């Protein structure tokens, strides 16, 4: 025999379950269909951009990939086209407004109007902030902030005229929590988060939904292209180990799925990896405590010196540890995702 309290709990649980099921059904019915849509991915020739292109190709999307390296673009095009995807590649430096405008005009006139824009192009500078120069800050802000501004403004008129579109801005958890030894990167990603959230508020009335992604570390294979300063070999080894560890990172494929699903459902934000989600929550609850913890982390990172303000690429900073079993996931991703 059920008590009154037992009956109340039963109906409460049933109500919550019904609401959850109803929400899932509504999300499923209103999900954006990528099939037949033209999707532009900046930085799409390798790494995360290429991973997302593969997943979108399986859903029938028409792909436009832009990047600065023609060889990488052609490698990506051959792979995707070889698997049946319709794909166009465009050499373009997204930090150059004229190049961006010319690319968008060419794509929309000669290929197809752009339905979905994914601002993915990126750059990483790692090392003590005292070894950074204005050059690193300018490079980061140009590609992470001005690049998305140029592409967004270029596609916006046509999206408004057609009555809708989707934009995914791939920032970083570093755009919510500024990380030691990644200050130019974090600062520019903060700028992108602010841009993206403001765009969402203003563009929703045109049925253009903007999603801000703040992923944690993911195994894309990209560390080898980072610019490293100071004690570059020690910096790079630690960075690559963190990038490869299943405790602190996830596969690029898993992260890409989460971000594309957020875009599909028109979500405002998406954060990937448990590590990043916990850090984001802690920062919201106590920004001071979070920065104090990060200050302790900074104390055990390599200090100033080494090559100082000079810089080396990741692939120039390899050590036995950075090429060991500790980084096996990242090493496999390098080959798989056109990073080598």
Written overview of the protein:
With 340 residues, the chain is an alpha/beta fold. The strands form three sheets. The protein has a seven-stranded parallel beta sheet, sandwiched between helices. A three-stranded mixed beta sheet has the order 5-9-12. Strands 8-10 form a two-stranded parallel sheet. The chain is globular and about 60 Å long. The mean pLDDT is 94.
| CATH architecture classification | 3-Layer(aba) Sandwich
Strand tally, please? Answer: 12
Overall mean pLDDT stands at 94
Q: What is the CA-CA span between the terminal residues?
A: 68 Å
Total domains, how many?
1
Strand line-up in the sheet with most strands: 3-2-1-4-6-7-11
Can you give the helix content as a percent range? 40-55%
Order of helices and strands: HEHEHEHEEHEHEEEHEHEHHEH
User: Strand pairing plus helix content: what structural class?
Assistant: alpha/beta
Characterize this entry briefly:
With 340 residues, the protein is an alpha/beta fold.
Blueprint of the fold:
Layout: H1 4-29, E1 38-42, H2 47-58, E2 62-67, H3 70-82, E3 87-91, H4 97-110, E4 116-119, E5 125-126, H5 134-162, E6 165-170, H6 183-203, E7 208-213, E8 217-219, E9 227-229, H7 232-244, E10 249-251, H8 252-264, E11 269-270, H9 274-285, H10 287-300, E12 311-313, H11 328-336
Parallel strand pairs: 1-2, 1-4, 2-3, 4-6, 5-9, 6-7, 7-11, 8-10
Antiparallel strand pairs: 9-12
């Amino acid at each position: 025999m059920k008590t009154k309290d037992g009956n109340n709990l039963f109906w409460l649980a049933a109500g919550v379950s019904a609401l959850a099921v109803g929400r899932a059904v509504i999300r499923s019915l209103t999900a954006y269909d990528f099939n037949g849509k033209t999707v532009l991915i900046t930085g799409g020739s390798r790494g995360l951009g290429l991973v997302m292109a593969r997943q979108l190709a399986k859903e029938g999307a028409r792909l436009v990939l832009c990047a600065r390296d023609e060889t990488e673009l052609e490698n990506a095009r051959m792979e995707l086209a070889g698997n049946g995807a319709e794909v166009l590649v465009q050499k373009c430096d997204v930090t150059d407004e004229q190049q961006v405008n010319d690319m968008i005009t060419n794509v929309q006139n000669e290929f197809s109007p752009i339905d979905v824009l994914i601002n993915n192009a990126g750059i990483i500078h790692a090392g003590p902030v005292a070894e950074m120069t204005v050059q690193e800050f300018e490079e980061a802000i140009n590609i992470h902030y001005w690049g998305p501004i140029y592409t967004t403004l270029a596609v916006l008129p046509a999206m408004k005229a057609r009555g809708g579109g989707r934009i995914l801005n791939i920032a970083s958890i570093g755009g919510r929590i500024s990380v030691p030894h990644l200050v130019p990167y974090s600062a520019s990603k903060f700028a992108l988060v602010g841009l993206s959230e403001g765009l969402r508020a203003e563009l929703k009335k045109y049925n253009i939904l903007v999603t801000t992604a703040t992923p944690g570390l993911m195994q894309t294979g990209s560390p080898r292209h980072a610019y490293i300063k100071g004690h570059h070999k020690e910096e790079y080894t630690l960075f690559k180990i963190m990038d490869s560890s299943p405790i602190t990172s996830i596969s690029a494929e898993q992260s890409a799925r989460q971000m594309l699903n957020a875009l599909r459902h028109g979500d405002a934000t998406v954060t990937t990896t448990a590590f990043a989600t916990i850090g984001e929550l802690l920062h919201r609850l106590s920004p001071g405590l979070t920065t104090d913890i990060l200050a302790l982390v900074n104390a055990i990172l390599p200090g100033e010196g080494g090559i100082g303000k000079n810089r080396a690429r990741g692939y120039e900073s390899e050590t036995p540890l950075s090429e060991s079993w500790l980084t096996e996931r990242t090493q496999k991703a390098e080959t798989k995702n056109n990073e080598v």
